[in-house]
Design a protein that fits this description.
7-stranded parallel sheet, alpha/beta, globular, Rossmann fold, 7 strands, NAD(P)-bd_dom_sf, Short-chain dehydrogenase, binds nicotinamide-adenine-dinucleotide
Amino acid sequence: MASANFAGKQAIVTGAGSGIGAALCRALVARGAHVLCTDVDVDAAERTAGGLGAQARSARVDVTDAAAVQQAVDDVVSRAGRLDLMFNNAGITWAADTELLTLEHWNSIIDVNIRGVVHGVAAAYPQMVRQGHGFIVNTASMAGLAAAGQITSYVMSKHAVVGLSLALRSEAAAHHIGVLAVCPAAVETPILDKGLITGIDGREFYRMGQRSRQFYAPDRLARDTLRAIERNRAILVAPRKAYAGWLLARYAPGVMQRMSIRFVARQRASQQAVAPAAHTEGMTA
Ligand SMILES: NC(=O)c1ccc[n+]([C@@H]2O[C@H](COP(=O)([O-])OP(=O)(O)OC[C@H]3O[C@@H](n4cnc5c(N)ncnc54)[C@H](O)[C@@H]3O)[C@@H](O)[C@H]2O)c1
């Protein structure tokens, strides 16, 4: 897919039941695309698709299940003859001092945030190579470009997504396939309140990280993402004020590390001020 026109394009969005995924579905349909809205929470996926008319359908897809992701791709290709856009967006997070993470936490984030994207690429990319065009959009995060403590497993997973996206992009270009890593700072979605272990206040955590009270709006991010696809960009860092963090991490990693150490210290001080909540097991964010 070269650029510009989303009208009539065939798209799949994972994690479409909430937040950024739902906003991507709305933006795509508004631009004339046909979208398969998928989520492990099928009711949520249905709610997203239900509000979007005939251009949207829904399906239960758990991205940790490679066969289910493949089935979603096959479904679109058998109906439309092609898949133009694949949004590997589903994700979870864990926020805690790293010694509190169990192997279950580590494995769940590897399964959803890394394997989930791998499953999307493994299912969609060969089809796009066969058809000679396409665009893969992987929702990473600023945490894929800069490292902050207390979200170690999340940072690891999003660095993997950025690496996968950039490496794939360099060989996909020859097949007229674009690859974009979306790297937003904190976005106003339910994930900010999920995956919190031992009393961390997610909103305070991310607010302190970005030194601003206001979070980026998911519908704005979705519009910025479609614009980045049109421009065939490799990485979308958004909102604009997040650029400073990216540049600092790239060009002054020592300074960034020292800032990160101070950030964790400030976080710990503010976390001691609140009573520890019950350990939040099995949450997907
Ligand atoms: N909100 C932010 O601040 C922010 C910032 C940067 C990146 N991101 C990334 O954006 C993506 C979307 O997050 P969001 O903020 O919209 O969160 P969200 O919690 O609102 O939505 C995530 C969706 O993913 C779904 N999901 C979880 N596990 C799944 C699985 N195994 N299979 C399929 N679907 C699954 C959930 O049911 C949910 O509907 C994630 O990859 C997240 O890491 C979010």
